[in-house]
């Protein structure tokens, strides 16, 4: 008995822990695709091999990572509607390499007074400095900003036309932690940037890094030596506790991080007085 299948605007495709072999990479992918609207939600994990078949343990570990990423921090975006199955997987692969990456924004976290951070290489990028010049008076946020408990975490991938070692281009993975007041736009952030080489504009991939370590570094910098800034009125609503998105805030922070002062990108500011005692 033969039959035909087809999709309508209400159709949805969902796959959990689908494996894709791409050269020497094994990709574990979980996604849901709403065919009629082009909405896509996904998370993935990439296993790099030397051409060898992954072990049972490697399969299990990456399936666990993909599942947890999808449950806690999936990427939500829009692609074309009514894509064929091969084109859908190509679109997701393109998002992983050149767009949103393998995992999305983390849920806001709260820090409490009795919590302390472990020691990490908070000052690995440069010695302690305020990142200001004689011609520029540094902005200072209101004291209330320091008391905020909700902290937002995000990672953004950026391709830069700057040389990195022997390669003509640089890939930056910027991990940021920030908190701010919607009432006046005052914002504090700390960041950590992972640099890697890229040899072509057309073919490049962001490496898989230990995200927890980089977020921990960014969080430590937020707490001990944050950068002060102020968000313009048109975007301050994105600092509210139940904001739908924070895309403009993230872009503003990313731009500030990459604006060099005295030759340094602005991942951190001066050490707070209570940490100097």
Characterise the protein shown here.
- The chain is α+β, with helices and mostly antiparallel strands and 277 residues long.
- It folds into two domains: 12-98, no CATH class; 109-276, no CATH class.
- Helices cover 23% and strands 28% of the residues.
- It contains six helices and nine strands; from the N terminus they run βββαβαβαβββαβαα.
- The chain has helices at 56-72, 85-98, 143-146, 211-224, 247-258, 273-276, and strands at 12-22, 25-34, 39-48, 75-78, 109-110, 150-160, 169-180, 186-198, 227-230.
- The strands form two sheets. Strands 5-6-7-8-9 form a five-stranded antiparallel beta sheet. It has a four-stranded antiparallel beta sheet with strand order 1-2-3-4, with helices on both faces.
- The longest helix is centred in the N-terminal third of the chain and has 17 residues, at 56-72.
- The radius of gyration is 21 Å and the shape is globular.
The backbone outline, from C-alpha atoms, is globular
- SS strand fraction: 25-35%
The count of strands amounts to: 9
Spell the H/E element sequence: EEEHEHEHEEEHEHH
The main β sheet shows up as:
5 strands, antiparallel
Instruction: Quickly count the domains.
Output: 2
Radius of gyration: 21 Å
N/C terminus separation: 80 Å
Helix content: 10-25%
| Helix-strand makeup class | alpha+beta
Number of H/I helices: 6
Strand order of the largest sheet: 5-6-7-8-9
Q: Could you report the average pLDDT, rounded to the nearest whole number? A: 84
Q: What are the low-pLDDT stretches, counting only 5+ consecutive residues below 50?
A: 112-135
């Amino acid at each position: 008995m033969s039959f035909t299948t087809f999709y309508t605007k209400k159709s949805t495709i969902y796959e959990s822990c689908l494996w894709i072999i791409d050269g020497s990479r094994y990709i574990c992918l979980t996604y849901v695709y709403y065919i009629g609207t082009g909405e896509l939600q996904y998370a993935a994990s990439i296993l790099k091999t030397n051409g060898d078949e992954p072990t049972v343990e490697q399969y299990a570990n990456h399936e666990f990572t993909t599942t947890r990423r999808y449950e806690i921090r999936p990427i939500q975006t829009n692609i074309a509607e009514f894509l064929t199955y091969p084109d859908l997987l190509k679109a997701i692969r393109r998002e992983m390499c050149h767009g949103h990456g393998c995992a999305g924004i983390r849920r806001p976290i709260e820090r409490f007074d009795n919590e302390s951070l472990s020691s990490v290489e908070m000052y690995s990028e440069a010695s302690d400095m305020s990142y200001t010049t004689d011609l520029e008076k540094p902005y200072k946020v209101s004291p209330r900003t320091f008391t905020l408990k909700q902290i937002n975490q995000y990672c953004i991938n950026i391709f830069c036309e700057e040389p990195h070692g022997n390669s003509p281009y640089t890939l930056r993975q910027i991990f940021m932690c920030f908190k701010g007041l919607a009432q006046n736009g005052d914002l504090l952030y700390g960041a950590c940037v992972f640099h890697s080489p890229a040899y072509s504009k057309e073919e490049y991939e962001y490496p898989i890094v230990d995200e927890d370590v980089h977020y921990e570094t960014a969080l430590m910098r937020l707490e001990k030596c944050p950068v002060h800034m102020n968000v313009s009125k048109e975007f301050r609503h994105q600092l509210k506790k139940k904001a739908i998105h924070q895309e403009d805030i993230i872009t503003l922070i990313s731009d500030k991080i990459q604006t060099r002062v005295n030759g340094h990108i602005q991942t951190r500011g001066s050490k707070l007085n209570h940490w100097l005692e």
